């Protein structure tokens, strides 16, 4: 699959198309170096997120080879787009810090939130099949990414089968996540949806060795409601109810899970 994609991209990647159109990068900007703008010592081998990202499947020599193709730029500010729907696809991105929201726009301009991405997670794979991004990605706070040019990733994968295998695993997880979300929206109550989303953030915190009970929701209540297919008023009402039941404490964007067992019961999740 990767080789097929690369043949198409080679025909469409002539000229300067390695940077997404919505990141304003000059020829001498940090995006054209291997050094991290915010910390020039950052590399794949030293990154604290390496156990979550592509390097997890590689040995030290292979990680160094991956590091040679990774491009790191200055952070994006809140509200900056990483890419927009319809932009030519050239790279995937590993979130290094902050958080992103992916969304699509209907023909009448209505926004539909498709997902939230946290450090260590890969974003931008929606453009692989058509070679154009099918959604937009916007920073919810000051954020940074590692850009991985896809044609370079494919070339490296020919020599590192473990890298290709792990990338397929990441794609498989994205497909499974989408299927799970469809089931959640079609079969679960509003309260179960909110509880499931909080448990998802909890598990993702845990994978990053952060507290699984102390969450910071960088997205708005309206964005949560949009993603879950419920109104902002319903989101707020459910959070208030769960707080009254001593399942959560809520302080604006900060949410602390006081009782994970009860929250799993609300979400109808009875085992890990």
What does this structure look like?
The protein has 272 residues and is α+β, with helices and mostly antiparallel strands. It has two domains: 2-176, Sandwich (Jelly Rolls), CATH 2.60.120; 188-266, Winged helix-like DNA-binding domain superfamily/Winged helix DNA-binding domain (Arc Repressor Mutant, subunit A). 38% of the residues lie in helices and 18% in strands. The protein has eight helices and eleven strands. The protein has helices at 2-12, 60-67, 150-159, 161-187, 190-207, 221-228, 232-244, 260-266; strands spanning 71-72, 81-83, 91-97, 100-105, 111-117, 122-123, 136-139, 144-149, 214-216, 248-251, 254-257. The strands form three sheets. A four-stranded antiparallel sheet has the order 1-8-3-6. A four-stranded antiparallel sheet has the order 2-7-4-5. Strand 10 and strand 11 form a beta hairpin. The longest helix has 27 residues, at 161-187. The model is unreliable at 1-40 (pLDDT under 50).
């Amino acid at each position: 699959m990767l080789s097929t994609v690369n043949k198409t991209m080679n025909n469409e990647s002539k000229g300067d198309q390695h940077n997404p159109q919505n990141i304003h990068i000059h020829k001498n900007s940090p995006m054209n170096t291997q050094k991290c703008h915010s910390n020039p010592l950052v590399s794949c081998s030293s990154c604290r997120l390496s156990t979550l990202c592509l390097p997890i499947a590689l040995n030290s020599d292979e990680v160094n080879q991956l590091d040679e193709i990774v491009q790191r730029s200055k952070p994006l500010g809140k509200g900056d787009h990483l890419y927009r729907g319809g932009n030519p696809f050239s790279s995937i991105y590993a979130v290094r810090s902050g958080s992103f929201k992916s969304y699509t726009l209907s023909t009448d301009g209505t926004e539909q939130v498709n997902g939230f991405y946290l450090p260590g997670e890969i974003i931008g794979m929606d453009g692989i099949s058509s070679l154009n991004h099918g959604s937009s990605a916007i920073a919810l706070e000051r954020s940074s990414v590692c850009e991985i040019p896809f044609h370079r990733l494919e070339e490296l994968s020919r020599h590192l089968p473990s890298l290709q295998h792990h990338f397929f695993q990441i794609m498989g997880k994205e497909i499974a996540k989408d299927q799970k979300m469809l089931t959640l929206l079609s079969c679960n109550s509003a309260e179960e949806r909110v509880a499931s989303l909080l448990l998802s953030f909890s598990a993702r915190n845990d994978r990053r060795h952060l507290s699984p009970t102390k969450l910071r929701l960088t997205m708005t209540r309206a964005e949560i409601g949009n993603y879950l297919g419920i109104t902002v008023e319903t989101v707020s009402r459910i959070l208030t109810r769960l707080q009254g039941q001593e399942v959560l404490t809520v302080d604006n964007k900060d949410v602390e899970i006081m009782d994970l067992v009860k929250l799993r019961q609300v979400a109808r999740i009875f085992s890990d």
